[in-house]
UniProtKB/TrEMBL annotation, chain A:
Source species of the chain: [Actinomadura] parvosata subsp. kistnae
EC number: 2.7.13.3
GO CC entries: plasma membrane
Mode of membrane association: Multi-pass membrane protein
Domain HAMP: 255-307
InterPro entries in the cross-refs: HAMP_dom, HATPase_C_sf, HATPase_dom, His_kinase_dom, HisK_dim/P_dom, HisK_dim/P_sf, MtrAB_MtrB, Sig_transdc_His_kin-like_C
Chain spans, region Disordered: 96-129
Annotated transmembrane regions: 40-64, 233-254
Protein name as it appears in the record: Sensor histidine kinase MtrB
Substrates-to-products reaction catalysed: ATP + protein L-histidine = ADP + protein N-phospho-L-histidine
TrEMBL record, chain B:
Residues in GerMN domain copies: 204-294
Coiled coil: none
InterPro entries: GerMN (IPR019606), LpqB_C (IPR018910), LpqB_N (IPR059026)
SUPFAM superfamilies in the cross-refs: Tricorn protease domain 2
A Pfam family recorded for this sequence: Gmad1
Annotated protein name in UniProt: GerMN domain-containing protein
Length: 582, 567
């Protein structure tokens, strides 16, 4: 079914496009949000802009409505009064009965077309001395012939339908005094564009002869319209200017405040990164200047304290190093004596013989502890150096396993080796790496509770890695970093069976760091633990990743199957924390 | 902070809304222009109503005729389809008095057609050349109406529009147009027409559109126009202090004479009708400025080269009339007391000549110390002499029925062709107007006719004779005098007394001038009107006051026969 397929493809494509757009939008929104959250200045300016726009719009609308109302109302008032005066004049002129004897003399003209002409001449200004009126007049008598007049180019069709109907209703209801008005755009004859016009419609009713005249006045409102549109334009321009001005003011003010704050932040960041001599410039005596002062004082105090602590730490390290050295000489003597005693133990009574053995064992431990202490104090003093040579890491692993086999046998533990077929060459200090691996293996045997220990070697273009996996009690959350602390013990009540000094993993970690490598631990209660050593193939090259996963593959797979919540993976160590590790 | 407080206090304490400012230049762009239009009112016709009877229908029809030019559709609604097909608005417009009567026969149930007649009194005819001819007498026309379900409809009516006086007063404006004297080309001649106001164009446009057309019948062949054929008016706009007339057509700005003539025609045709008065007129041809006429520029187009000279005759001698009254006798023979010379006429120009009629003919004398009477035209039945503005002297020889023209520069008398009908009439007076075109002729004792000198040079002839006024039988037209280009004073001696009428030769509009004394003769020049009054102790000279109502004695005794040059 190719069409369906096609359709499906297209649909998928569309969905993909939508998805892409959505992703892009989300990314942009995220970026905007981040910019927004990070910039105080932007927040201040935006808030000011929004608030001032609201205020200006509200005020501008109110102002314009007021002006509009007053202009239109006053024009309407004056128009209505002019229309009223005209209607009075028309009614007066058309009334056949009048008390004016002069008018009675030519009474024949009253109520005729001439009287209407005369009054229209006056009303429209078309008489001898008439001046042009600003409005047009339409007098309509729909029942008597020849009794309708208009000025200008107004015709009966120009009267808005609604107004005409209103007047008709008023006439039918004998409401001759009611006046109606409407504002409409009317297109007069000979004009191309409609003009805004205020039309006032009133009625002149002559009771004597029953004639009814509809009188319409057309007042052009284009002047008012122009005035109001100018006012509106002015309000918009001024409002816009005001908003921009307020935004500029907000920007400047925020800048005045934010710039010192930003400088302080940058200084704090530099301070945090170890530049303890970072200080802020102090200008003036305002709050920001005081903040800068306080910051500088804090930085100075901090630097002083750190210096003191460093000195103290130095003294302590020196003390440990000195003590270790000083202990070696008497220890050597004690050792020699103890060796003599140990060699002659068979001659002793069982009690004394057992004491000689114990002393021998503890002396060995004491010696190795002293050696470790010396080693670690060498690290502390920065005196440790590497003796690099290209080595196949598989050989190192095999040697370390060989060294550990005796111990493994004692713990009835077996090793499972997973080595690649090709050589895994790396520039390493053979002795130190072997020590690391030995430490890891001893550690795994000690905590492996007799279960198998899996040793995996991996390599890629840049790095080689060795992972040692045991299936012991595992590590509780947080312990994966603590295991590398000096003299740390998972369960203080547990005795050291192998007789480790408590410094092994600490030294291993220092060794790994010396290579520019990582030593990381993973563990879960009941699942055992895994230690992974990652070393660069070439010394001095920064590591970008490890060929082996820190979490054992079977655990990872189980986690994927469950699609359950990922267990929280805390950064394995301080020096590897910045890297994205799986 | 202080500034804000100060500003608030100032704003709140009633600072003036409109600032007092110093003098500055006011640019009156808005509404300062000439409106180019005159406000007017129009008849609005309404469609026939079902309830109307024959009379209302006829009156409605007449109202629809009054509104026909604005909206022809309403009139059609009054007519049956057949009448609509037959009737046309073309032809002269009949003007009757407002109070007309519609005579409706008593209604008969069986008949659907009603024959009514419309009775009224003639007022005038407005011809198709827009000339207005007053007429008098009763007027009656039959109309036929048909009763239809929707009311009465007119099935038969006379051709042409029928308007009342009020309709004409409302929709038409008497308008003066100016054309150029054909023979001398130095003087504008007024042509009076009635122009219908249009809603779609300004009055200025209406006037100029009409000016592009030929003059009325009365001036045909006697005047020319400086507008070449094919000239069109594109627009007329009113600027700040000027009126801009945009023309198109074959106008050449290189022809200076044509340019000045055209400007003169436009300027006078507009300003005498109260348009663009005191404003600069800018004439644009096809978008380029053709000429600009400043309002105070020297306009000699209506100048008669007459100055303020006036004369009177005392004891047979011609005297100057001064502001105080009596002046000295003119130099030469004319200023000497001598019998046998009467009906003096003075020519225009810096060295005027005086002509007089004697028993043997017409004599001419110069106003100079050496001036002597010299008989230039012989004849014993000649009308009083009249001077034309071109310097020629004219008289009509009633005996031979020939119009004679004497040219002083060539010292020759030439006959001028006249219409045949003039031969049959008794020509008493022959007066050429100061514009050199119009001619007033008194035929018999009761009638004044107006003609024009048509053609030019040798082909000049008297033509376009039209009836102007007449008096009842027994009355006698004693004297006529041209007051200005369009007004003729006619002094009538009747059985009931004298009347002096000022008649507009263009549309026959007549204004009476009240008289107290019996006048012997009149003379007029623009706002000055002089008359001779016979008293017990000789003649005296009267002057008409500015109010045009009362007379004052100018010279109490021994003064008569007032004279103005030409006319």
């Amino acid at each position: 079914m190719p069409p369906t397929k096609k359709k499906r493809t297209r649909r998928r494509t569309l969905r993909q496009i939508l998805g892409g757009v959505r992703r892009r939008l989300r990314r942009a929104a995220g970026r905007t949000r981040s910019v927004w959250r990070r910039s105080l200045q932007l927040q201040v300016v935006t808030s000011t802009l929004v608030i001032s726009v609201i205020v200006v719009v509200v005020l501008g609308t109110f102002l314009f409505q007021q002006i509009n109302k007053s202009v239109v109302e006053s024009s309407q008032r004056s128009a209505a009064s002019e229309a009223f005066a005209d209607r009075l004049q028309i009614a007066d002129a058309l009334a056949p009965e009048t008390d004016d004897p002069a008018k009675q003399a030519d009474g024949g003209k009253q109520g005729s077309g001439n009287a209407l002409d005369e009054v229209m001449d006056t009303v429209t200004g078309s008489g001898e001395n008439g001046s042009e009126k600003r409005y047009e007049v339409l007098v309509l008598n729909r029942t008597t012939p020849g009794q309708s007049r208009a000025s200008g180019s107004v015709v009966a069709d120009n009267v808005p339908q609604s107004l005409r109907l209103t007047l008709k209703r008023n006439i039918d209801a004998y409401k001759f005094d009611d006046v109606s008005g409407t504002i409409q755009a009317i297109r007069f004859r000979g004009e191309s564009q409609p003009r805004l016009t205020y039309v006032v419609g009133g009625i002149v009713h002559l009771t004597t002869n029953g004639r009814t005249y509809e009188v319409y006045h057309f007042f052009p409102f284009d002047d008012e319209e122009e005035l109001l549109s100018n006012v509106r334009l002015a309000i918009v321009v001024v409002g816009l200017g005001l908003v921009l001005l307020l935004a500029a003011i907000a920007y400047l003010v925020a800048r005045q405040v934010v710039t010192p704050v930003r400088l302080a932040r940058q200084a704090a960041e530099r301070l945090a990164s170890g530049k303890l001599d970072e200080r802020l410039k102090v200008r003036g005596e305002d709050d920001l200047a005081r903040l800068a002062n306080s910051f500088n004082e804090m930085a100075a105090n901090l630097a002083l304290k750190i210096h003191q602590l460093e000195e103290l730490s130095q003294v302590q390290r020196q003390f440990v190093s000195d003590v270790s050295h000083e202990l070696r000489t008497p220890l050597t003597t004690v050792r020699m004596a103890a060796d003599l005693l140990y060699d002659a133990r068979e001659d002793f009574e069982p009690m004394a013989a057992r004491s000689a053995e114990l002393m021998q064992a503890q002396l060995e431990r004491f010696e190795s502890m002293l050696a470790d202490l010396l080693e670690i104090s060498r690290y502390d003093a920065g005196a440790a150096t590497l003796d690099l040579e290209p080595v196949d890491i598989r050989d190192v692993v095999l040697r370390a396993i060989g060294d550990s086999e005796a111990l493994a046998e004692r713990h009835s533990t077996r090793f499972e080796l997973r080595l690649p077929n090709e050589p895994c060459m790396a520039e390493i200090d053979n002795r130190r790496v072997e020590r690391i691996l030995r430490n890891l293996l001893f550690n795994a045997i000690e905590h492996g509770e007799g279960r198998d220990i899996v040793v995996t070697v991996g390599a890629d273009r840049d790095a080689v890695a060795v992972a040692v996996r045991d299936h012991g009690i595992g590590l509780k959350p947080g312990e994966d970093t603590m295991v590398f602390d000096r003299f740390w013990r998972a369960d203080p009540s547990r005795a050291r069976t192998i007789g480790g000094t408590g410094l092994g993993l600490a030294i291993s970690r220092e060794d790994a760091a010396l290579h520019g490598g990582w030593l990381q631990a993973w563990g879960q209660p009941g699942e055992g633990s895994q230690f992974r050593l990652t070393l660069p193939r070439n010394a001095g090259v920064d590591l970008k990743g490890s060929p082996l996963s820190l979490v054992p593959p079977e655990i990872e797979m189980r986690r994927t199957w469950r699609t359950a919540m990922t267990p929280v993976l805390l950064p394995a160590s301080a020096d590897g924390a910045d890297h994205d590790e799986d | 902070m202080l500034a804000v407080v100060a500003a608030t206090v100032l704003a709140g304490s009633g600072c003036s809304v409109i600032q007092v400012t110093g003098p500055y230049t006011v640019n009156d762009n808005q509404g300062g222009g000439d409106p180019l239009n005159k406000p007017f009112q129009r008849m609005i016709a309404i469609a026939p109503q079902p309830g109307w009877g024959p009379e209302d229908t006829i009156r409605g029809l007449q109202a629809a005729m009054a509104a026909y030019a604005d909206d022809p559709s309403v009139l059609a609604g009054y007519l049956t389809p057949e009448a609509r097909a037959k009737w046309t608005a073309a032809g002269p417009v009949t003007v009757i008095q407002d109070a007309y009567e519609v005579a409706v026969p008593p209604p008969r149930e069986s008949e659907t057609t009603v024959k009514v007649s419309l009775k009224g009194h003639y007022v005038a005819l407005i011809n198709e050349d827009d000339s207005y001819k007053p007429t008098a007498g009763p007027w009656e026309r039959p109309f036929e109406l048909v009763k239809m379900p929707e009311g009465y409809r007119v099935s038969n009516l006379p051709q042409g529009l029928l308007l009342t006086e009020s309709d004409v007063a409302r929709a038409y404006r008497p308008t003066n147009l100016y054309y150029v004297n054909r023979s001398t080309q130095d003087r504008l001649v007024v042509d009076r027409v009635r122009l219908r106001l249009k809603t779609t164009e300004t009055f200025a446009q209406t006037v100029l559109e009409r000016l592009l057309q030929p003059p009325t019948e009365a001036l045909r062949g006697a005047v020319t126009s400086s507008f070449p054929a094919g000239t069109k008016i594109e627009s007329i706009r009113s600027g700040e202090d000027r009126v801009i007339i945009n023309l198109s057509g074959p106008l050449s700005s290189l022809d200076l004479t044509a340019t000045t003539t055209l400007t003169g025609q436009i300027r006078n045709s507009l300003s005498t009708n109260e348009i663009a008065k005191g404003r600069t007129i800018e004439i644009v041809v096809d978008g380029e400025t053709y000429t600009t006429d400043l309002p105070d520029s020297d306009d000699r187009w209506l100048d008669d080269d007459v100055g303020d000279s006036a004369y009177y005759v005392s004891k047979g001698a011609v005297h100057y009339l001064t502001k105080e009254g009596r002046g000295g006798a003119v130099a030469g023979a004319a200023g000497e007391q001598r019998d046998g010379y009467d009906h003096f006429a003075v020519s225009a120009g810096p060295n005027p000549l005086i002509a007089a009629r004697t028993s043997t003919g017409i004599s001419v004398a110069g106003i100079a110390p050496e001036g002597v009477w010299q008989e230039v035209i012989r004849g014993d039945d000649l009308t009083p002499p009249t001077w034309n503005r071109d310097g020629s002297l004219w008289t009509y020889d009633g005996k031979n029925g020939v119009l004679l023209k004497y040219d002083p520069s060539r010292n020759r008398v030439e006959p001028v062709e006249v219409p045949e009908e003039l031969d049959k009439l008794d020509v008493n007076q022959f007066r050429i107007a100061r514009d050199g075109v119009r001619v007033a002729v008194t035929t018999g004792e009761e009638t004044v006719q107006i003609g024009a000198l048509t053609g030019e040079g040798a082909g000049t002839k008297l033509g376009n004779l039209q009836f102007l006024t007449t008096t009842d039988t027994g009355n006698e037209i004693r004297d006529i005098a041209w007051r200005d280009d369009e007004h003729l004073l006619v002094l009538v001696e009747g059985t009931a007394g004298q009347t002096l009428n000022e008649i507009n030769v263009g549309d026959g509009e007549t204004t009476g001038v009240p008289l107290k004394d019996r006048l012997q003769s009149v003379a007029a020049f623009k706002d000055q009107v002089l008359a001779e009054v016979a008293t017990d102790n000789g003649n005296k000279l009267m002057v008409l006051n500015q109010d045009q109502q009362t007379w004052t004695a100018k010279i109490d005794s021994d003064a008569g026969t007032p004279l103005f040059p030409l006319g």
